[in-house]
Amino acid sequence: MSDESRDAGHADLLDAIESGEGYYLACENGHGSLPPQRICPECGSRELTQEALPEEGEVETFTVIHATTPSFAEDTPYVVAVVGLGPVGLTGQVRGVEPDAVETGASVRPTVVETETTGERTIGFRP
Amino acid sequence: MDVADGGGYMSGVRVAGIGLTHFGQHPERPSRDLFGEAGLAALDDAAIEREDVEALMYGNFMGEISDHQGHMGPLVAEAVGLDVPATRFESACASSATAVREAVMNIRSGEQDVVLVGGAERMTNISTPDATEALALAADDLYEVSAGMTFPGAYALMARAYFEQYGGSREDLAHIAVKNHYNALENEYAQYRREISTEDVLDAPPVAEPLGLYDACPLTDGASAAVLVSEEYAEANGLDASVAITGTGQGGDKIALQDREFLARTPAARKAATEAYDDAGIAAEDVDVVEVHDCFTIAEVMATEALGLYEPGEGIAAAREEETTREGPHPVNLSGGLKAKGHPVGATGTNQIAALTRLLRGDHPHSDAIADSPTAVAHNAGGTAASTAIHVLEEAQS
Questions:
Q1: In this structure, are A73 and A127 located in the same domain?
Q2: In sequence order, which residues have a C-beta less than 8 Å from that of residue B1 and are 6 or more positions away?
Q3: Based on the domain organization, do A1 and A37 belong to the same domain?
Q4: Domain identity same for A45 and A65
Q5: pTM of the predicted model, to two decimals?
Q6: Nearest to B148 among A33, A62, A72 (CB)
Q7: Residues A40 and A66 both lie in one domain
Q8: Measured distance CA(B179)–CA(B177) in Å, rounded
Q9: Is the minimum CB–CB distance between A104 and chain B shorter than 8 Å?
Q10: What are all long-range contacts of B284-289, with beta carbons under 8 Å and residues at least 24 apart?
């Protein structure tokens, strides 16, 4: 990927998760946010530091997607979940488990996966 | 800030006229043509001269994709023969309600007396997957869309969270779709004028589980418009403008579901409702009839709860228990809702204003279904409700 099309902050986070060093942004009051972010959206603190992303999170909700956009046409059916990871949440594709077997409350680990259709990197989760 | 707190002079706002195109599949019609029809119909309905219109506020969401068109304000002003300041409002599916809100505040301030508001969307000239991609522009591109989250997917995430937190079933949701189709039977502007059964809904192909095709509103081409005027202008010109917009409110939220405290509630709508009710001097108990943003069946549930018609977790059974049907105590979406009437995104907010105006002044097919002198509320939500604008309509006092 060229520097021109790189989304600063987000792409850096994907790199970090891919190498097992995922992080989130934390303020001194314990609120979490995701890059790129310059101010805590909860309390307005501008003192944000990188903290290690929990290695495991919990599926808060999920959906099995059957009808989608051209960019994911060959991915269907696929599972998109919102996963709570300490003070932040992440949205990603659940891999390594059949769609019928995904459950809310399940423990999953954040990772980076490639989409089937375009090969683009995105956030994923594995059991 | 509550507009009523601004101090100084504040004019009342009247709906002087409304105009609609048929909502449906009109892929060959550019949105400028759709809005031209609706805008001129509104001006004709208001019976005012176009020279009196001082501004145009226009809602549209995906015109860059479907019409290859930005800078739409002057374009649609020309389509209705106006040479006035014309601005496009984009707040996803709440685009035209935010346009209405701006017009209301401008008229109240005394800045303008006559404003044409409205919106249009052309959606079926592109493929369904391409339209799905266009609609996903209303979500967080980096953190939601990049993972393959679609808009049906987003509401499916909220539906499952709702079921987990409060209970409820796909069958409860199916009753909402059935009700809204039934309400649209006599709506000559509606996309679908046919009855469906709960079995039809439950047996429809899945789109984003737990939601199926019949939980979702269709892709729609269409436009809507309203002429809003100050009450002084209405009186000075002898207009028949018996409906007043007495409350306006707008609420915001984080755009991505993952960043929110609640996955099964829409706090932005609650904030907008509180502001609009305070503005109008009403309470939730005073509300007689509502048009809400049922882009998906679950959205109607969360909307009625945010409006205070039901406590969180209690709105899910309302359609099944016939409380939100035409005969029930809380009629919801007498026009057929987005589900059956159709959802040309940028036109939906003003369409709700138009539907409620017709209900209040007595020329809606279901005007007989509501009480005399009703208090009506329009709820228009953009994205997963991160932009929600709400308006209160009542019969004018004078």
A1: yes
A2: none
A3: yes
A4: no
A5: 0.96
A6: A72
A7: no
A8: 5
A9: yes
A10: B284/B308, B284/B309, B286/B375, B287/B330, B287/B375, B287/B376, B287/B377, B288/B331, B288/B370, B288/B371, B288/B374, B288/B375, B288/B376, B289/B331, B289/B334, B289/B356, B289/B359, B289/B370, B289/B374, B289/B375, B289/B376, B289/B377
CATH number for B271: 3.40.47.10
Q: Which of A10, A65, A122 sits opposite B153 (nearest CB)?
A: A65
Q: Is residue B48 part of a domain?
A: yes
- Judge if A59 and A42 occupy the same domain: no
Q: Is residue B144 part of a domain?
A: no
Query: B148, A63: Cβ pair inside 8 Å?
Result: no
Render pLDDT for B154-172 as a digit per residue (tens, 0 to 9).
Answer: 999 999 999 999 999 999 9
pLDDT tens track for A70-127: 999 999 999 999 999 999 999 999 999 999 999 999 999 999 999 999 999 999 999 9
B34-62 burial, b if ≥16 CB within 10 A, otherwise e?
Answer: bbbbbbbbbbebbebeeeebbbbbbbbbb
Number of domains present in the structure of chain B: 1
Alpha helix positions (H), chain A: 10-18
Residues 6+ apart with CB under 8 A from B78: B32
Nearest chain B Cα distance for residue A42, angstroms = 10
Does A5 share its domain with A58?
Answer: no
| Pair A47, A58 in one domain | no
Give residue A89's domain range: 54-127
Residues of B annotated catalytic, as ranges: 93, 343
Q: Cβ separation of B259 and A63 shorter than 8 Å? A: no
Cα angle vertex A119, ends A123, A18, to 5°?
40
